[in-house]
Write a structure and sequence with these properties.
Layout lengths: L6 H18 L1 H4 L1 H7 L4 H16 L2 H11 L2 H20 L3 H29 L4 H28 L6 H18 L18 E2 H8 L11 H34 L3 H28 L3 H21 L3 H15 L2 H12 L4 H29 L2 H29 L10 E2 L4
Parallel strand pairs: 1-2
Helix pairs in contact: 1-7, 1-8, 1-9, 4-7, 4-16, 5-7, 6-7, 6-9, 7-8, 8-12, 11-12, 11-14, 11-15, 11-16, 11-17, 12-14, 13-14, 13-15, 13-17, 15-16
Length: 420
């Protein structure tokens, strides 16, 4: 049961992630404007995105430790203010070097936001923490779908492109002030008793002892490493699409700038639909370990069709399907990792998110270099290669899952993770 007293705080937290959905694709959506303003090229803009990943990578661990020590509020408030500084600074930046500094600060803000918000939501809604955190993905998708429409509106009315930066910055600032005045939930909150019909990971392990002769033990250097690598491949696909889909629409298909920006809208609508589908199907019918295999298979077909059928209609359909099939894979990878290694949740979460941060840092630079020496289609061929690798990893993880958690136990598929 959700605590009603936590709704005001949760509202502010979700508003931050709605804005973050815009923030996350802001540079890619303004590629043509920024290359001219900063006197750079598309590879330069991808370097800015990598700088954001760099800032996140080197502050993610320490921000989590400090959040546990000093509380969630300071980091969430500072994150909102730093993101506002980035959004105001980029369109007004006098040089590319200054934009790089701002991008690193934005990465720091991202790590602060994540390390404060996810624990705060779990502490606010301890009996429904899964639903509370999954909704974050939904709000990100809403924000990301809205930004291209706002940009198109400003373009059609000859309004300075910087206003699409300034408006989210203003809301970030107001929301930071709002959250600063809110009372956050107690950090000492304990995990609730397991609800009727749910099976915790520890309960699964105890039941598994009855079948010790039939099951294998989790092996970090096998399924653990595979899941960490999935923490790299999944975000790689996400970043390729968010960063280069509009460019693909213009250069490969021949769309106008406004038409190509709408592809991001369809992509995020698909992502939003996926969130609601996952909330339903994971409750009764499908396990997370199956989704991390099924979704990459769907996205592989969509990427192939995107390159094969060179038309606007096909691009719209493929963008929607890709958005649907990429969304939630990272979160479910963490869930599966926690099932295998239930006694090391904090440590293995750090491993997976480190791989994710490496993806955010390396992939924008690499794809920018690739585009500088080749065509945009080569970037999406890279996506297909990464997608195939993800499928191979997921097949092995599913195989190991069948050995470690034999289907014959027939326990409830619903997993309630310890949130302490």
């Amino acid at each position: 049961m959700m605590k009603r007293s936590s709704f005001p705080v949760a509202t502010g937290l979700y508003v931050n992630y709605l804005l973050f959905g815009m923030f996350n694709i802001m540079l890619a959506s303004h590629m043509s404007f920024l290359t001219e303003h900063l006197h750079t090229d598309q590879a330069g803009i991808s370097l800015l995105v990598s700088a954001m990943g760099f800032g996140r990578l080197f502050t993610l661990y320490i921000s989590g430790v400090l959040s546990d020590r000093y509380g969630r509020k300071p980091f969430i408030v500072v994150a909102g203010l730093l993101m506002a500084v980035f959004l105001v600074g980029i369109p007004l930046s006098p040089s590319f070097e200054m934009a790089i500094v701002l991008a690193v600060l934005a990465g720091v803000a991202n790590s602060f936001l994540d390390s404060g918000t996810y624990p705060a939501l779990i502490e606010a809604f301890p009996q429904s923490s899964g639903s509370a955190t999954v909704l974050v993905r939904g709000f990100i998708s809403i924000g990301a779908a809205f930004l291209p429409l706002m940009i198109i509106f400003f373009m059609n009315h000859d309004i300075f492109y910087g206003f699409s930066f300034f408006l989210p910055a203003l809301i970030f600032t107001l929301n930071a002030i709002y959250l600063f005045r809110m009372k956050f939930p107690d950090m000492r909150v304990q995990s609730p008793k397991e609800p009727v019909g749910a099976t915790s990971v520890s309960s699964v392990e105890q039941a598994g002892k009855l079948e010790a002769n039939d099951r294998s033990k989790p092996r970090f250097w096998q399924e653990g490493v595979c899941l960490i690598l999935l923490g790299f491949t999944g975000p790689t696909l996400l970043y390729i699409v968010q960063l280069w889909l509009p460019t693909f629409g213009q250069q490969f298909i021949g769309m106008t700038q406004s038409e190509s920006l709408r592809l991001l809208v369809y992509y995020n609508v698909g992502s939003l639909i996926s969130v609601f589908v996952l909330v339903i199907v994971l409750r009764k019918w499908v396990k997370p370990v199956h989704i991390i295999l099924i979704y990459p298979c769907i996205s592989l077909l969509a990427f192939g069709a995107l390159l094969l059928f060179k038309s606007g209609a096909a691009a719209i359909i493929c963008a929607s399907v890709i958005g649907f099939s990429i969304s939630g894979v990272l979160q479910l990878t963490l869930t599966v990792m926690s099932e295998f290694f239930s006694q090391r949740k904090g440590q293995i979460t750090g491993f997976v998110y480190t791989a994710t941060s490496l993806s955010y840092t390396v992939i924008p630079v690499f794809t920018g270099f690739l585009l500088k020496h080749s065509q945009i289609s080569s970037v999406f061929m890279l996506a297909i290669i990464v997608n195939v690798l993800g499928i191979v990893l997921a097949v092995f993880v599913n195989f190991r899952y069948s050995l470690v958690f034999p289907a014959s136990r027939k326990l409830s598929p619903k997993i309630v993770l310890d949130t302490k």
